Amino acid sequence: MTLEDLVRLRRARDVINRDYAEPLDVPALARVALMSPGHFSRSFRAAFGETPYSYLMTRRIERAKALLRRGDMSVTEVCFAVGCTSLGSFSSRFTELVGESPSAYRARDHHELAAVPSCYAKIYLRPVRRHPGKTADRHVT
To answer: Which residues form a coiled coil (predicted)?
Structure first.
């Protein structure tokens, strides 16, 4: 993979980070990277260790966790606010990545994070893949 390829992949990853709540798909992201969809998907996984879809969903779940911690939105509202179109798929993916349902996460006491700056909370609460296909949430202790 060339340095130019990595720059283009980073540009596509930046689009995911910025526009995670927008409808994004591999063909659109591949156009940003100036690659074919198949080459883009393979290259993205090689460069970043996960597929573009997995990366996008991780960003969406990270944002959903922040919105759920605030407690002023329903799970359905959060689902749509982060760009998911199916409550069932959102809940399944959230549970897979976080280890508990969005409702249970929202109901949990999050006061220990109130004094933690959001940039640090994001680091510690990011879902981390421990084994291929499995993830676990980091908990602040």
So the answer is: none
- Measured in whole angstroms, the distance separating CA 13 from the mean position of its chain's CA atoms is 11
DSSP track, 43-104: HHHHHHSS-HHHHHHHHHHHHHHHHHHH-SS-HHHHHHHTT-S-HHHHHHHHHHHHSS-HHH
Q: What is the largest CA-CA distance in the chain?
A: 47
Q: Residue 96's closest CA among 138, 129, 51?
A: 129
Tokens of 106: 């929202």
Residues of the chain with pLDDT under 50: 130-131, 135-141
The one-letter code for the residue type at 24 is L
CA dihedral 108, 114, 120, 124 (to 10 degrees): -20
pLDDT of residue 136: 46
Beta bridge partners of 129: 135
Residues 101-118 have pLDDT tens digits of 999 999 988 776 666 666
* The model's pTM: 0.78
